Amino acid sequence: MTSTLKISSLTKRFDALEALKNVSLTLEGGKRVALLGHNGAGKSTMMKIILGLIPFDSGEVKVCGLTPGSAQARAQVAYLPENVSFHPAQTGEEQIRYYLSLRGQNPKLAMELLERVGLGHAARRRIGGYSKGMRQRVGLAQTLIGKPRLLVLDEPTSGLDPISRRDFYDLLDGLAADGASVLLSSHALTEVEARTDKILILSKGRMVAEGTLAELRAQADLPITLLITPANNGSEILSTSFPQAIRSDDGRFRLTCEQADKLSLLSRITALGDKITDLDVIPPSLEDMYSHFSRRDGQ
Question: Which residue blocks in the chain are alpha helix, DSSP H?
Answer without folding.
Answer: 43-50, 71-74, 92-102, 110-116, 132-143, 162-177, 189-195, 213-220, 235-241, 262-270, 286-296
